[in-house]
Amino acid sequence: MSSAGSSVTLVSRPRTRRAAPRVKTGCKTCKIRRVKCDEEKPHCKRCTSTGRKCDGYSTTPNGSHAIVFPVAQTSTIQRAVRSPMADDKDLHFLEFYKHCAAPSMSTDAFDTNFWSQACLQMAQSEASIRHALIAIGYLNRSQTGSLKSARSGLVATSGQETFLTHYNKAIKALAKRIPEASCTPEVGLVTCFIFVGIEVLCGNYDAAMMHYCNGLRILQTLRTKQGSSSGKMLGSDFIEKTLVPLFHRLLTTGIQYGVPTDLAMSLIQRPPDTPQPTFKSVLEAQSAMHELRNQALLFIRHMGENFRPVTPPPEHKLLDQQALLFALDEWWIALEELESSTILSKDDTTTAHALKACYYTTYILGASITDPNQSACDRHLPRFKALVHHCRHVVEHSPRLGVTSPAANFTFEITVIPCLNFAASRCRCPVTRREAVALLERNIPREGLWDAQQQALVCRRLIEIEESEVDPVTGWPTENARVLSTWSMSCVAAPKAENSLSGAMARQVTSPLFAGCADVYWDCRYDCSRRYGWERAVCGILRDGYVGGGPGRGAAAAGWGEREDVEGVVPAVTAARSVGHLRMRHASIHSPAQMCGFTLSSLLQTS
Predict the structure, then answer these.
(1) CA torsion, points 411, 413, 418, 419, in degrees to nearest 10?
(2) Tell me: the pLDDT tens digits for 522-550?
(3) What stretches pass through the bilayer (predicted)?
């Protein structure tokens, strides 16, 4: 108190507003700073203009499915560690995934954004994705990347329990998550694609394609609901810019392994006769080539199923063929213009070589599919030589060549293995096809379901068969000695009983040239079980027709491989002789997803 007569001055405190976020829909950084966010996507200008890192946006509270996943600079794994659903004893597989597996599987911007960023971000809050990443991290750490390594893992081991535990936890977590109102299509699609990756790593093409088709159905349903059957998917940039390109790139494998045509067409947006625009980057050229490659494979599948080898194609199909070849030439011109006007980086240059190899492969296939004679490929020798040249550049400049990595030698991107396999099997020039085989025998990462060592074995045996009867003038195989198509099968964890099918028999077509053969399972019970036993890997050569056709159209392997010199996978190939209709059955593949009876079809009901 002041003395008498003195005055007391009361200083009023300035009135302040109670602290609260100013906006409900802004980015996370602006919410924390309590400032107005301009809500620019993917990163707001309020943050980027001041040099701050925009942490992205949370799922919108109004029930829409739009979601954006930012690039996190902080440790994703450490935040996942604090999750009560994460098992501490297995989190090192998640660390391994982050530091080794994800970079190994990422080949460019599409893959990096998904495997190294979006998946890890979503793993913080989604148990299904977290457990799926632990499972795929285990696979990458325990396998070498070869199909032999993958299939040997089908046999139960103590370490396999870790993989199966987390795979099943991921499946159960997703099944529990789907009915929740907060579950968005992004959760189902991301988990679905990781499941595809798991099954591809395991070498289970059947289960991988099951998951892949489920993902395609989700995308198809979303586009139908949006009223955009072949255009941009509204409402989610993450789906359109990240997930759709991933599913689109995997479509090449899907078409080769029997994905239904209607699902494949749901991802193809441009007719084949549309001229290509000028490319602004190699990434644009890559996307355009994926589109053309898939169109070509669908055309080849249709021609193979309906017209080849005895029925001549109608006129409109010949026009479709010319339109496809014209579109490929337009693509080539656009790529050359890009190369002449831009200084490409080392990685972009390697990608351009891979795209050129794909161009030559697609062009030769498209140009020769209407000719029933195998000699139709002979006129394309300069293209075959160019194909091998570009593949050699890719192989020799691969960052993985000669490098030992703790992760599996594996990538999802299809680059050179199918091209080299095509050159080795369809080019009858002895020098060129052997150059292709020699490149396959290098340490090339497995590309999806394409194993370079396996394809090299098939091609060497195929060359041996074809060159047993050569033209005395050209030195090339005669038309009668040339093989029409190949497929390979392997029996895993199979019983040795002579006349029974007890046990888990997994028989897979691993290298079909024509997708019409993709769903064939050979019931060799009537042919070889008594002599060779079920564990023997088998590869057949198809000549004179298609497996599964009517009487007189089928063909069967007339001799069985007795060598097990290369890891028990495709030890030998033998010439086929027409024997009429084959007896076939569908053998189930016992993957964790199938054992749980789980599919993603319920996601189709997601609103």
Answers:
(1) -120
(2) 322 222 222 222 222 233 333 332 232 22
(3) none
SS (H, E, C) 77-92: HHHHHCCCCCCHHHHH
The gap between the terminal CA atoms of the chain, to the nearest Å, is: 69
CA 521 vs CA 200, 254, 500, 524, 562: distances in Å? 18, 17, 16, 9, 20
Spatial separation of the C-alpha atoms in residues 218 and 215, rounded to whole Å: 5
Give the span between the Cα atoms of 510 and 297, in whole angstroms: 17
Taking phi first (over 0 means left), then psi (-120 to 50 degrees means alpha), and beta for anything else, what does residue 552 get? left
Residues 6+ apart with CB under 8 A from 222: 185, 233, 239
User: Which residues are bridge partners to 492 per DSSP?
Assistant: 506
When comparing pLDDT for 52 and 472, which is higher? Answer: 472
Encoded tokens for 330: 């337009």
Contacts of 439 (CB under 8 A, 6+ apart): 388, 391, 392, 395, 416, 420
* CA–CA separation, 428 and 434 (whole Å): 10
Contacts (Cβ under 8 Å, ≥6 apart) of 93? 134, 135, 137, 138, 141, 162, 166
Q: Which of 32-36, 216-220, 450-454, 509-513 has the lowest mean pLDDT?
A: 509-513
**pTM score:** 0.69
Q: What are phi and psi of 249, to 5 degrees?
A: -70, -35
Q: Which of 58-72, 156-170, 288-302 is predicted with the least confidence, judged by mean pLDDT? A: 58-72
3-state DSSP assignment of residue 212: helix
What residues does 539 pair with on adjacent strands? 488
DSSP code string of 36-93: -----SSS-HHHHTTTPPP---PPPTTS----------S-HHHHHHT-TTS-GGGHHH
Report the C-alpha gap between 525 and 215 in whole angstroms: 35
258: left (phi over 0), alpha (psi -120 to 50) or beta: left
